[in-house]
Every structure is written in C-alpha cells, then in structure tokens.
Design a protein that fits this description.
The complex is a heterodimer of chains A (664) and B (147). Chain A is an alpha+beta fold and 664 residues long. Helices cover 46% and strands 23% of the residues of chain A. Chain A has a 6-stranded mixed beta sheet with strand order 14-18-19-17-16-15. Chain A has a 5-stranded mixed beta sheet with strand order 6-8-9-11-10. Chain A is elongated. About 9% of the residues of chain A have low confidence. Chain B is mainly beta. Chain B has a single domain, classed as CheA-289, Domain 4 (OB fold (Dihydrolipoamide Acetyltransferase, E2P), Beta Barrel), CATH 2.40.50.180. The longest helix of chain B is centred in the C-terminal third of the chain and has 5 residues. Chain B is globular and about 45 Å long. The chains are: A alpha+beta (664), B mainly beta (147). At the A-B interface, helix 25, strand 21 and strand 22 of A face strand 4, strand 5 and strand 7 of B.
C-alpha cells in the first residue's frame, strides 16, 4: 500500500507525540513520584511505535520499543528514575525528533540510533536486579503492592474477611474490544460475583462502569469463599469477557510468608495502562477535524473580499439613500462581522504549541551553561493567528537564549550579589485588546547603559556625545540596531553575528513591536506586542495630496488638527507642542514624495507610536476609520520601507497601508 | 524541426514588440493606478484586479524610453510568471501572431533597449519584432534597475 499520502499526517502526529514525551519527561524530572506521568509517556511512545511500524519506519519503531520497555520497568519500579535514565530518555526523544526531521526532509539515510538503543538496553538490563523471574511475573503485582492499593477501610474489610476464613481476590478482567455493550457485560460480572461473595472495590468505580465510562478492563476486589478455579469457571460463562488475571490478596502482615498466591500459570501480560487509560482519556476529549491551512487561508481571503464588497455596498447606500436597503445592509454587516470572527478564530492556535518546546530547551541550555534556572511559563492558552505562530518561534528562542546566556548571572555571581542562586526566567503571553503581549523576563544582571554606549561607539553606530545625550529609552533601543551585540565574549549560544536586530525585523514583519526595559541588578524584560491577526485590521484612512493611505489603528495614539503657525523648528526638525510636550512632526507629503504642492488650509496630525516614541504625521484630511483587508504587494514590491501592504477600498481603488515602524 | 509559438504583439514608442502568449494572463484597459512611494521609478503602482492587488510597471520607463502618454489604446498586459502576477503598460496591442523558431534570430546590439531584456528578434514579412525576455523584464530589483 502506498503510505506516502499519510506521511504528512504521520509526521504531524508523531511530532505531537514526541512533544508529549518531552513535556512529560520534564514534568517527571521535577516530580519523580508522579507515576501517572509515566503512563502518559508510555502511551505516547506506544502510539509512536505503532504508527511508525505501520509506516515502515523500523528504526523509530525499534527505538520506541526500547523506550517502552524501559518505561515499563520504571513503572514497575524495577529501576529507579535517576539522572542517567533521564538523560538517556531525553536523548532518545531528541533522536526521535531527528529521525522525524529526516523523514520530513526526505532523507533516506537512516539515522543511526544504535548507541541510544544500546544505552537503553543497558539501563534496562541494569535494572533487572530482581532477576528474570520478575519479568515473567510482571503481569501480577506483588502482594504488598496490591495491599497498598486499598484504602484503610478496605484493608480492614480484607483483614476481617481473611480472619473469617474467606479469600480475597484481585481480578483483572478484560472486555472484548468489539463488545458493544460493555456496561451490560460488566453488570453480568457483578451479578455473577455478588451472588457468591462481595465486591469491595472496583476500578473504575461502579458509577463509571454503569455509565460505560471505562475503557476495556476492570479491576475488582472480591471477597468470597470460592476458590480461584470456581471463580474462573463462573467468569468463563460470561461471553465477551476474559479473566486475565486473578491474585489472592493477603493482609500486609501475612504478605511476606504468602508468596504462593502469585499465579504463574497465566502468560498474558497484564496491561496496567488499560486501567489508567480510563482516567487518561477523560482528560482531553475534543471533537476536532484537521483542516489544511490552505483551505482556511482561502476561506479567509473570501471573507476579505466579502468585507470589501460590504463596504462598497455601504457606500452605494450612503450615496443613494435607499430605505429598504438599510436594513439588509445592517444584517449583512453583522453577519460578515460574525463570519469574520469565526474564520479568524478557526485560524487561531494556542501559543502553547510554540511555548511547549521551551522548557526542554531552557533545561538543556542551563545545563550547558552550568546555571540554575527556573522557567515560569504563563498564558500558554493565549491564541494567535496561525501565520504569526509559525513565525514567532525563532525570535522567542533568540530572546530566551539571550536571557540565559547574558541576562542571568552565573551561580557564583548571583551568590555574591545576594540573590537566590536559581535564576528565574519568565515567559508570559496574554491578550490585550486586539494584541497579544509576550514577555521574556529574567532576574539577572540587567543591561548596563554605559556598556551600551561603549559598544555602540566601538561598533561605530553613533558618536559618544550623541549617545550620552540620549535618555535611557533611546539608548536601549540601540541594542536592536544591526551590528550591535552586548555579549562580552562570543559563545556557542548567542553572539554569532546575529543580534537583536533579527528579532526586531521579524517582529516588525509581523506588524508587531518589541521593546526592552531593564533595571540594573534586577533583570531585563523584553516585551513583544503582536496583532491578533494579520488579515483584517482597523485602520484610519487619511489623505495626503490626492492620495489615500491607511494607518493601522493599533499604531495611533490620537489625532488632532493643526494650524500652520503652530509648527516650530528645532534643529531643522519640525515640532509642535502637544499638551506641553514636544512632538516631532513628519509631513507625509515629504516622506512619501506625494505629487502636488497646493497648500491646504487645515492640516491634521495623526500621533503614531513607534515603540516608546511618539511622532506626529502631518496629513491633509482624516477620512475615517474603516476595517481593511491587508493584501501583500507581492514579492516584487515587498520590503519597501514605510509600506506594510495594500488594501482594496470600497470604491475599488487600492490604498497603501503605512508601516509606521519603518516609515520613520 | 522548427516549433511554432504564439506571441502577443504590441507597440511601444513606434517599435514592435512581442511577448510569449503563455505568460500572458489577460490584457486590460487603463485603470486607476495607485502610486507606490519609494518603489523603483519604473513601477507605476498597484491596481485592483478583481480583488487582487497587482503591481504595474511602465514598459517605457523600464526600457529607458520617454514616459508614456496615456491614450485610448494604452493597455495593461497582465503577466503571470513564476507564480507572480504583474502588469506592464504598453501603447497599443496589435495582434496575436505565430512565429516559428527559425524565424527568430539571436538578439543583436541594435535595439534601443537593453540587451538583457531581449530574447530574440522575430521576422514576419518585412516586420521586425523585439521578443522580450520576460523573466528579466518583469523581475524587479535585479540588475538593469537604473534609479
């Protein structure tokens, strides 16, 4: 069978599973006592194994199989979770990642995983101290473990029962996977057993079983005078179920001298995950459909066209004044609005997808650097447009690396400064209106303004006198300039020639903005502000000469009218006084060399914000606020400074959208 | 064996030109063009082509000819090349004609326009048609930009 058509799906899902592996391994490293995490990990590895075997990727299947074995042993506590095991498991996860990447790139050369497989095998064998017998018996739990599964009340019941000469059995029953009425089967089991004894505990609980709220296996604790054989006989009478396992439970005091209760005759492996599945599956049941992003894109562009035509319709109506049309237009207006929101939401992806890979990255980097770092992630659920999500990863990696490498001090330095030796790195995302704010904050040494000046002078970015007259904000913005790098030495992590200017460019290309605040000795905070969506935005239309431009509302602080005589010149820079503070002006006509020179009687100023800086754009007329659909200018005209794109207005004409960040 | 190919013929500044018809998406009348500031000088601007924003270049300015006058016969030829849509203004679209490969000669340094824009000279009867190298003509920002 040709599997290539499933390749994309396989890769996508496999990547998710590797992600789950990584995440849960990390969690487990923090809380080794959470054995339930192992089950999650096991499941991910298991699914991955099955998937890759089906697709014919034997090396992945082989590796996951080895991992699975190891997880199994960990779960049974045959080997302990130590650093060696974790390292090996992380390495395996990396190897899986690498192999998937290889498949994605179409490499045919199989990645060599022998060493890791061997390492896994060694760990596995090293853990086999219990002896080979234990492996054979792993379908049955040790008496003491069985005992520990019961709560105090149940233990008392068991004790009393044993004292009275009853047997207590732990039964592991599997229901045939194709059984349609699991609940009924379970009921029959209960019915049959309760006639001859008492069920003191069931996993899952009786209520869940009645609701058919369980997977395919049951564990029952049963007190009866019956022998194992007669119970087996009873169970065999019920069709579509299988008594996989039965153990006699003895009270703890007897456990040591009552080893014979282990039933060695049964060869089937007990699958404890069968039980855990029930709780695991409950966690996430979303009804989802995977949709090709291209379909969403074309849906979005159709909605875009609808918005354009709606605006056109509104214009026709306002010039022709047709009463009956009004109501319909109102309706269309609200429907388009809803439609837009729905489509937009469909394209939204939780930033989790990006954030999830960071804990692992930070852990590894911190280890490499010999620093202690705690990463706090907040706002994973914040949603962003898919296109933004795809692009935001690299800048964030860059900022996190910077923070780890330069921001946070070494352990000794921190101690000397009287700080907690463990550095704190905070990665937060939140939505604010039509924007998403992502911040990367460390509690490290902060950025020294003097060193910025030194560096900038050294790299020839500006003259010292000029720099020394700058305020803190202006100075800090220099670190985003091309050719600036604050690192004292070149390290493997950062400082390989690309600096924060790359981050800034990327963010700006997403119509976002990035700025930094810092406090000496207390830390540095990078803040990224991104629009929720890149497709449809609110904009103010302005006229300059005969040309109409759109300014994204997100960039605008306020607008005001202006009289020619209020414009003052300071050092050949036109400024006005706006409520006491000096606002530099930029005449749009000059900036964009708009043809025509006739003076208008009245001018307007649109106060826009570039990062922390305010600038007044001088325009001839404020036309009004409108929803516009952003079109790219195509690859031929992309990258023109000051122009973010184009939009088709209601009258069918194209108007350019100004990019404030690069205009000035 | 000579292959026969179809070309769209048009006039520019009294000279005849031809472009491979397979690269032509459509030919439209003059329409409102929005100027794009800070773009190369031969870029006239962008138009709205049924909901798509399409950049338009001026053939006159691209070939360093005097700027065109817009008349009734001025047309915009919309090309689709390497997946990108881009329009070019021409003075007058004359016809669609067929040329055999052996009717096309190598470009000579005889034309008024830059050699890299020409892929050959087509001869039909006593007419000479300059066949454009559309890849070079329509790729913006490459060499040949003289602004």
């Amino acid at each position: 069978m040709d599997m290539s058509q499933y390749l994309d799906l396989f890769l996508e899902e496999a990547a998710e599973h590797v992600q789950t592996l990584n995440q849960n391994l990390l969690k487990l490293e923090h809380n080794p006592e959470r054995i339930d995490l192992l089950d999650e990990i096991f499941r991910a590895a298991h699914t991955l194994k099955g998937m890759s075997a089906t697709m014919g990727y034997d090396s992945i299947a082989g590796l996951t199989h080895k991992m699975e074995n190891l997880f199994d042993m960990l779960r049974e506590r045959k080997i302990s979770l130590d650093a060696k095991v974790f390292n090996c498991l992380f390495k395996s996860a990396d190897a899986l990642d690498g192999m998937l990447e290889g498949i994605r790139e179409g490499e045919t050369e199989p990645v060599n995983v022998d060493t890791i497989v061997k390492e896994l095998g060694m760990l596995e064998n090293g853990g086999l101290e219990v002896g080979s017998e234990a492996v054979q018996n792993d379908e049955t739990k040790k008496d003491t473990e069985l005992w520990d599964e019961l709560n105090e009340y149940e233990q008392n019941l068991v004790k009393t029962a044993i004292e009275k000469g009853f047997y207590v059995w732990r039964m592991f029953i599997e229901i045939h996977p194709e059984c349609l009425m699991k609940g009924v089967r379970a009921f029959m089991i209960f019915k049959s057993l309760e006639g001859r004894g008492e069920i003191i505990k069931s996993v899952p609980a009786v209520q869940d079983i009645e609701d058919e709220n369980f997977d395919k296996s049951l564990v029952l604790y049963y007190i009866s005078a019956d022998s194992e054989e007669s119970i087996r006989k009873e169970m065999n009478k019920i069709s579509e179920i299988k008594l996989k396992n039965i153990n006699k439970i003895s009270s703890k005091s007897e456990a040591s001298d009552n080893n014979s209760s282990n039933n060695n005759g049964i060869k089937e492996r007990k699958k404890p995950e069968g039980i855990v599945d029930i709780s695991g599956k409950k966690q996430k049941i979303h009804q989802t459909v995977r949709v090709d992003i291209n379909r969403l894109d074309s849906l979005m562009s159709l909605v875009g066209e609808l918005v354009i035509n709606k605006t056109r319709l509104e214009q026709i109506n306002s010039s022709n004044k047709i009463e009956d049309l009004n109501e319909t237009i109102e309706r269309i207006n609200s429907i388009t609005g809803d439609l837009q929101t729905v489509v937009q939401n469909a394209r939204m992806v939780a930033i989790e997808q990006v954030f999830n890979r960071f804990p692992r990255m930070v852990r590894d980097l911190a280890k490499d650097l010999g620093k202690e770092v705690e990463l706090i992630v907040e706002g994973k659920e914040t949603e962003l447009d898919r296109t933004v999500i795809d692009e935001i990863g690299d800048p964030l990696v860059h900022l996190l690396r910077n923070a780890l490498d330069h921001g946070l001090e070494s352990t000794q330095e921190r101690m000397a400064a009287g700080k907690n030796t463990c550095g704190v790195l905070q990665l937060k995302a939140k939505q604010e209106g039509n924007h998403v704010i992502i911040s990367v904050e460390d509690d490290g040494r902060g950025i020294e303004l003097d060193s910025i000046i030194d560096k900038a002078v050294k790299n020839g970015l500006a003259a010292r006198t000029e720099l020394e007259s700058m305020d803190e904000r202006e100075l800090l913005s220099i670190i985003f300039e091309p050719g600036f790098s604050t690192s004292q030495e070149i390290t493997d992590l950062s400082g390989r020639g690309v600096g924060l200017d790359v981050v800034k460019n990327k963010i700006q290309s997403l119509s976002g903005d990035v700025y930094v605040t810092t406090k000496k000795g207390q830390g540095t905070k990078f803040t990224i502000k991104l629009p929720l969506t890149l497709a449809i935005i609110q904009a103010l239309l302005v006229r300059s000469g005969k040309e109409v431009y759109a300014i994204p509302l997100a960039n605008i602080d306020e607008t005001t009218s202006l009289e020619e005589q209020h414009i003052k010149n300071i050092q050949s820079q036109q400024v006005i006084l706006l409520r006491g503070s000096v606002l530099p002006l930029l005449d749009l006509r000059k900036a964009l060399s708009v043809p025509g020179s006739e003076k208008e009687d009245e001018l307007y100023v649109v106060v826009v914000r570039k990062g922390e800086q305010q600038i007044g754009l001088v325009v001839d007329e404020l036309i009004g606020q409108q929803e516009i659909v952003i079109n790219s200018l195509g690859k031929h005209l992309s990258g023109i400074p000051g122009i973010a794109g184009a939009s088709i207005l209601g009258d069918g004409k194209v108007s350019l959208i100004l990019d404030i960040a690069t205009l000035i | 064996m000579s292959k026969e190919m179809q070309y769209v013929a048009f006039n520019l500044n009294e000279e005849e030109y031809a472009a491979d018809i397979l690269a032509v998406q459509e030919i439209i009348r003059w329409t409102h063009i929005t100027r794009v500031p800070r773009a190369p000088s031969y870029v006239k601007g962008v138009i709205n082509l049924r909901g798509t924003v399409v950049p338009i270049i001026s053939s006159h300015l691209r070939f360093n000819l005097p700027e065109e006058e817009i008349t009734d016969t001025t047309r915009i030829i919309v090309f689709k090349i390497n997946g990108a849509i881009i329009g070019m203004t021409v003075d007058h679209v004359t016809e669609v004609l067929q040329l055999k490969t052996d009717e096309i000669e190598k470009p000579q340094a005889m034309s008024t326009i830059d050699e890299e824009f020409i892929s050959g000279i087509g001869k039909v009867d006593d007419r000479l048609l300059i066949i454009l190298n559309l890849d070079n003509v329509l790729s913006l920002g490459k060499k040949g930009d003289k602004d």
